[in-house]
């Protein structure tokens, strides 16, 4: 066999080997992608898998509305609570005595108002008596005395108005004391499950301090950072095939947040879903299959 013939034979063999390897690699890649996107029979044609997470639409905290030491916890991590259920109680002796003092102050202000009203009534009688004397032109009538009584009446009536304002202030102070006394009991802002505790019995807390963290597990939904080029394929109300913990579910597009993350070129999309009786945890991953057509 000549050298030319041998060279052409080797070239043909190399070409056939490269062609076979390329074909096999392409088939393996397509099969791998099909297995990734097409688990449990989900269509893979022109589709992309986006990994999302379970979130709670409503999360919050049980916080202190007054300052004071914690007396007792009525619920702990993992406990299911109802709205307005008492979760924590603060020591309330200070608030009780403060309320009693302000109640006494209100009674005192009311008594002062009653006294000033009585003085007004007394002077009004004197003014009426002098008016009668002036009417009959009695020699006992004195103009200067009448003027003094009229002036005193003006002053006393002004003091009655002042006393009425003081009573209103005392009543408002008592209402604030009642509110402080009520706020020693810290209640759940909504129904849900306690997931974290931030303090202990005996700790001194201030207004706004977080004591417990609560999530409403009846409002769970899916949130995903969707690449910008896929957003145009989604509309409100669209149904997207999804998988969570190996189970297929339907997720409906609830809202597309009109704000883009410049670092990842993604937008946040939230999906409503029914998870059934299965236990689902916040931040649990969800695979969303988004069709590109």
Would you mind describing this structure in some detail?
α2 runs antiparallel to α3 (143-182). This protein has four domains: 1-37; 40-58 and 216-291, Beta Barrel (Elongation Factor Tu (Ef-tu), domain 3), CATH 2.40.30; 70-90 and 185-215, OB fold (Dihydrolipoamide Acetyltransferase, E2P) (Beta Barrel); 93-183. It is elongated. The strands form three sheets. Strands 1-10-13-12-11-14 form a six-stranded antiparallel β-barrel. It has a four-stranded antiparallel sheet with strand order 2-9-7-4, with no helix packed on it. The chain has 293 residues and is α+β, with helices and mostly antiparallel strands. It is built from four helices and 14 strands. Helix content is 42%, strand content 30%. Residues 25-43 have low confidence and may be disordered. The two termini are 58 Å apart.
Oligomer state equals single chain
- Low-pLDDT stretches: 25-43
The helix/strand series, from N terminus to C terminus, equals: HEEEEEHHEEEEEHEEEE
What does the largest sheet look like? Answer: 6 strands, antiparallel, barrel
* CATH class (first level) name of the largest domain: Mainly Beta
- CATH architectural name of the largest domain: Beta Barrel
Look up the CATH topology of the largest domain.
Elongation Factor Tu (Ef-tu), domain 3
CATH level 4 superfamily of the largest domain: Efflux pump adaptor protein, beta barrel domain
Mean pLDDT across all residues, rounded?
Answer: 85
How far the N terminus sits from the C terminus, by CA atoms, comes to: 58 Å
The tally of strands reads 14
Number of spatially distinct domains: 4
């Amino acid at each position: 066999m000549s050298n030319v013939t041998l060279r052409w034979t080797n070239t043909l063999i190399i070409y056939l080997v490269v062609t076979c390897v390329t074909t096999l690699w392409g088939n393996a890649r397509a099969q791998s992608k099909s297995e990734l996107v097409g688990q449990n029979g989900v269509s893979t044609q022109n589709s992309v898998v986006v990994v999302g997470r379970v979130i709670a639409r409503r999360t919050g905290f049980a916080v202190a509305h007054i300052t004071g030491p914690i007396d007792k916890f009525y619920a702990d991590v993992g406990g299911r609570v109802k709205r307005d259920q008492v979760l924590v109680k603060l020591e309330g002796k200070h608030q009780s005595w403060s309320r009693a003092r302000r109640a006494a102050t209100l009674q005192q202000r009311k008594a002062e108002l009653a006294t000033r009203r009585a003085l007004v009534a007394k002077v009004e009688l004197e003014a009426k008596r002098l008016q009668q004397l002036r009417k009959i032109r009695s020699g006992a009538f004195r103009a200067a005395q009448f003027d003094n009584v009229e002036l005193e009446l003006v002053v006393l009536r002004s003091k009655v108005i002042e006393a009425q304002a003081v009573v209103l202030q005392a009543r408002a102070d008592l209402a604030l004391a009642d509110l402080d006394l009520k706020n020693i009991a810290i209640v759940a802002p909504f129904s849900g499950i306690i997931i974290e505790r931030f303090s202990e019995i005996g700790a001194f807390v201030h207004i706004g301090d977080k004591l417990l963290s609560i999530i409403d597990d009846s409002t769970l939904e899916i949130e995903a950072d969707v690449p910008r080029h896929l957003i145009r394929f989604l509309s409100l109300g669209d149904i997207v095939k999804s998988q969570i913990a190996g189970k297929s579910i339907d997720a409906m597009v609830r809202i597309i947040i009109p704000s883009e993350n410049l670092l990842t070129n993604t937008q946040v999309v939230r999906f409503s879903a029914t998870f059934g009786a299965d236990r689902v945890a916040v931040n649990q991953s969800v695979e969303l299959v988004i069709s590109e057509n």
